[in-house]
Amino acid sequence: MRPMPTSKLDPRIKSVWRINDAIWITIAGLCVVLPLWLAGIGTEEPVLFLLAGIAAAITVALYVLCLVVLPPIRYQRWRYQLTDDYLEIALGIIWRKRFIIPFIRVQNTDTRQGPIMRAFGLSSVTVATAAGEHEIPGLDAEQAEQVRDRAAELARLAREDV
Q1: What does the pLDDT look like over 90-124, one tens digit per residue?
Q2: How far is Cα 149 from Cα 157, in angstroms, rounded to an integer?
Q3: Do 29 and 90 contact (CB within 8 A), yes or no?
Q4: Residue 26 needs a FRET pair 20 to 30 A away by CA distance; which of 5, 88, 133, 149 works?
Q5: What positions does the domain YdbS-like PH occupy (predicted)?
Q6: Considering the domain 79-161, what is its CATH architecture?
């Protein structure tokens, strides 16, 4: 079996993941807990308050799972590597995925940076093929530009060799 790719993401990506997850968990939790709680106020039914309490407990459990437990594991499992012929990406906690993208198939390379990643000085590199897009998230902005430019150059060289 092929060895795992060696390049890691920037450690600051764990904070970005935590903030993104906190935002989504908060929105989802409020959309479930608040209506149940408000509906319980107008009735004599204690079951609505019970359901709101259960939903709040699930929300807290998701906070612990997604903000404390998963980011370090996710960070350890995320790897990528550029070679002269392909880009290899390995990721996943329970379901492991490995992608090998030959540069002969690459159509476009790009960098992306949302507001949270921008605040941490991070960017993502995307590599597009006819089959879809693959993303390397959480690279230092300067490193992301270097990876993007190197991937674009290797794709250009691979097309010239054909």
Answers
A1: 999 999 999 999 999 999 999 999 999 999 999 99
A2: 12
A3: no
A4: 133
A5: 75-150
A6: Roll (2.30)
Task: Please report, as a single letter, which amino acid is at residue 73.
Answer: I
| pLDDT score of 159 | 85
Name the strands in the sheet holding 97-102, side by side, starting at the edge strand that comes first in the sequence.
79-82, 86-91, 97-102
Cα–Cα distance measured from residue 81 to residue 76, given in angstroms and rounded to the nearest whole number: 15
Residues 35, 41, 43, 46, Cα dihedral to 10°: 90
Structure tokens at 35: 């209506």
- The answer to whether 32 touches 55, Cβ cutoff 8 Å, is yes
Whose structure tokens read 């674009």? 152
Closest CA to 74 of 98, 96, 91: 91
Instruction: Provide the residue ranges of all domains of the chain, joining segments of one domain with +.
Output: 13-75, 79-161
Q: Which residue has the tokens 């990643």?
A: 117
